[in-house]
């Protein structure tokens, strides 16, 4: 009799262990109950920056050379963007929004003398690629990650301060 109780207890424990993960799942999305909830894919700052660019920015076209190094291509043609530009001291800052890859990509640019420093970012402000583009030269990927990350942080810091309603 004691042997049967032991077998039953082990089976019950095994059954509970197998069904426990299923209890943690939710089936509401299977039946369409979750569709009224907003799906946020942006950081709150990213959401505000994208909205600001869409509302106040100007449509423009960017040359494809530097963006091709960042894996943004339009089959060799110029890239359509929406941009906001501002000056601070002797620096000119530009932020561009493009959807060429079917997602929001932010391109931050700063002129430093005769060189443009460009950074590709997602809307969570993760730097994805950086390019240096001399006025009379060819663009090249910035391989010094410390330099690229520091410049990227300076550029997004500028836009965080400039953003309305911060």
Provide structural commentary:
The protein is of the alpha+beta class and 166 residues long. The protein folds into two domains: 2-31; 44-162, no CATH class. It contains four helices and seven strands, in the order ααβαββββββα. A seven-stranded antiparallel beta sheet has the order 1-2-3-4-5-6-7.
Helix count, DSSP H or I runs of 4 or more residues: 4
Biggest sheet layout: 7 strands, antiparallel
Q: Element order, helices and strands?
A: HHEHEEEEEEH
Count all strands and give the number. 7
The overall pLDDT average reads 82
What proportion strand? Answer: 25-35%
Helix-residue proportion: 25-40%
Poorly predicted regions: 22-40
* Large-scale geometry: elongated
CA(first)-CA(last) distance: 72 Å
User: How large is the radius of gyration?
Assistant: 25 Å
Number of domains: 2
Report strand order across the widest sheet.
1-2-3-4-5-6-7
**Helix/strand structural class:** alpha+beta
Which helices and strands, and how do they pair?
Blueprint: H1 2-24, H2 44-56, E1 58-62, H3 64-68, E2 79-88, E3 91-98, E4 105-112, E5 115-121, E6 127-134, E7 140-141, H4 145-162
Antiparallel strand pairs: 1-2, 2-3, 3-4, 4-5, 5-6, 6-7
């Amino acid at each position: 009799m004691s042997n049967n109780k032991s077998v039953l207890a082990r089976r019950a424990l095994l059954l509970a262990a197998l069904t426990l993960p299923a209890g943690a799942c939710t089936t509401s999305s299977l039946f369409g109950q979750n569709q009224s909830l907003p799906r946020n894919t942006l950081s709150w700052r990213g959401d505000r920056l994208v909205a600001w660019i869409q509302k106040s920015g100007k449509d423009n076209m960017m040359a494809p050379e530097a963006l091709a190094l960042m894996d943004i291509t339009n089959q060799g043609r110029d890239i359509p963007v929406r941009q906001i530009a501002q000056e601070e001291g002797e620096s000119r800052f530009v932020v561009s929004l493009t959807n060429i890859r079917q997602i929001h990509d932010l391109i931050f640019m700063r002129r430093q003398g005769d060189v443009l420093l460009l950074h590709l970012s997602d809307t969570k402000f993760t730097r994805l690629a950086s390019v240096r583009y001399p006025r009379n030269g060819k663009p090249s990927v910035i391989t010094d990650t410390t330099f690229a990350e520091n410049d990227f942080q300076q550029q997004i810091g500028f836009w965080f301060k400039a953003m309305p309603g911060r």
